[in-house]
Amino acid sequence: MIRRIALWSVLIALPLLLLGAAIGGVLLLRQGGLAPYRLPAGTAAAPAAGDAAEGAYLARIGNCLTCHTVRGGVAFAGGRPFRTDYGTLYSTNLTPDPNTGLGDWSVEAFRHAMRHGVSRHGVLYPAFPYANFAHLTDADLDALFAYLRTLPPVEALPPPNDLQWPASWRGALVGWRMLHYRPAPLPPAPADAPPGWLRGRYLVDGLGHCAMCHGTRGAQGSLPTEGYLAGGRIPGQGWYAPPLDARQLARYDVDQLADYLVTGNGEHGAAYGSMAEVVYTSLRHLRADDARAMATYLKSVPPHGGDEKPDAGRFLYAAAQPAANPHNGGRLYQDHCASCHGDSGEGRGHDYPPLRGAVSVTAPDPVNAVRLVLYGGMPPTTAGNPRPHSMPPFAGRLGNAEIAAIVTHIRRNWGEQDRPVSAADVAAYYGIRGD
Amino acid sequence: MSLAPSTDRETSPVNAPHPAPPRPGACARTLARLACTALLAFGAASAQSAEADLRERLAACAACHGERGEGVAGSTYYPHLAGKPAGYLVEQLQAFRDGRRHYWQMVWLTQYMDDAYIAEIAAYYAAQPPHTQAADVGAPALPAAVRERAEQLVHHGDAQAGVPACTACHGAALTGLEPAVPALVGLPQDYIVSQIGSWRDGTRRSKTPDCMARIAAALSPADIRIVAQYLSHQSPGAHDRPAAPGSLMPPLTCGDLPHAQVTP
Q1: Which of A63, A282, A381, A398 to mutate to test binding with chain B, by most B CBs within 10 Å of its CB?
Q2: What is the pLDDT of residues A212-246, one digit of tens each?
Q3: Residue-averaged pLDDT of chain A
Q4: B84 vs chain A: nearest CA distance in angstroms?
Q5: In B, residues 76-135, which contact A (CB 8 Å cutoff)?
Q6: Which residue in A3, A38, A355, B39 could disulfide with A345, CB within 3.0 to 4.6 Å?
Q7: What CA–CA distance (Å, rounded) separates A280 from A259?
Q8: What is the greatest pairwise CA distance in chain B?
Q9: How far apart are the C-alpha atoms of A145 and A107, rounded to whole Å?
Q10: How far is B103 from B111, CA to CA, in rounded Å?
Q11: ipTM higher than 0.95?
């Protein structure tokens, strides 16, 4: 009897095990096989051969600084916290300190970590955009490494990551990669690609890693192909990033968009939130031809979601059926907003952004509009906009229901977003969370 | 020919007959005077419009600090900015940006701001009349014992606890000291308590050596409340500018007092 059960168990279990192994093998192959986990040989003693001056520019445009510097800390010395659904991650020290930084790294190890997301510390968390950096050329990777070698070494160990199990175990990341990571080289440029398109795509998809914020996230924080530059809530940042495609950017011509990237401002609005940070630490240093190339490529991205209006339902609203708002949003708008944004939301030149067609107004997710009204804003100072006009905060001056009424009014009239924002929604977006 | 517009033009106000021209010498004098007046008026007007232009840009600041940094009536927390030394204001804006102060609404507004704009904003508020209303001017008078202890601390310090007099650095009238020590009068009590508390727990830091952190650590919680209460009852006069640089020699060597660093 027992023998028969054992026999049947083996007969059932064996094919299941084989099937599991086969599926695992296929998934492993699809995330790049075993090659990512074989670390290259190489000695740190070898001099960095790359072009350090070009590397300084590339580091700016890749915006290494923003993630690898804690507010008020030494540049590139790491330690900035990243709050995720799985706990808090801390960025690492990129200065050439031998104990806590990249001081004893070889250029081969650097290239490998940038391209495959694996270093001697194990598999790196996908907050590090290796899927994008995989597209970088050898010359650019070597230039970046050569530049990082010129930084003054700083002994600084980031705090240990504070993650839940199993995310706290780096081995689990192999499983994550099997499910969610599909490395592939960029397809060849279309025959009719305009000048600069290829360079633009290289900057957008490679170095600039725009999709880290502007992509639609899938399960477990992944970035599936179908969400490419399709927009969404930025993890841990409390901001919504719009889709980047020909329709979303139709308001801009290529020159205007290039100008916006470098100045953080324009007649269609100013950069705020996470984008203000990207402009301030990175994009304002873009060379003019690179800015134009990025704009050219971004305006060529096919529109997402066909002709449908983006689905507001996929963003969480605090109240399913908000109570009728006692306030008159139109009148509140006239009292508090119209002097800058105009009676019809038309804005005023480069000083005050138009609300008609603005991302915060048309987006399915109301978080940007609510947070801008609550806490105001100051666009980044750049050479093209050295003395920005600011937006005053209304938190504490207007109640949640009043703010909800204003945002609902604006979004209904100039954003075609019918879904009302409630006082509870406003309350849900309260609070500035610092690093 | 009849369509020629010449007749219309001649009768238009622009080409209306001028009065007889004055003699050449008189003309030169009148012109010079006119030009001079015009220039002066233009200069004043453009300075005024430049100031109005900046004021418009700083609507976010005005929400809590008032249009000219004079404070907002009834505020129980936000400090005034008007008339504080520009060096002090620069240091504070940079501190919010660079992680030495952590009031998040201020961090939010300053985090992507460069030094040039910070300097311009600081200069604007520093140049405003320092007339502010202390938030607690209407509060009932302090009990005699509290007042006595506060005056002792403010004017003489507490040598035993290692606390210098406030007036030693902030000026005899507590209106600050150029270029970087702020006025202590005209501030809400809660703001003062909060700042001293922040120095104690390290969430507000000045440039090292951080004298205020040392003083804050040496003050007892009861003394902090007493000093804050007393200071918040004092209101500056309309023309009380910070003391001139070098007009008094602070007893401490502090990061924010560059001219005092030579003292032994």
Answers
A1: A381
A2: 999 999 999 999 999 999 999 998 888 999 999 99
A3: 93
A4: 22
A5: 98-100, 102, 104-105, 107-114, 116-117, 120
A6: A355
A7: 14
A8: 102
A9: 7
A10: 12
A11: no
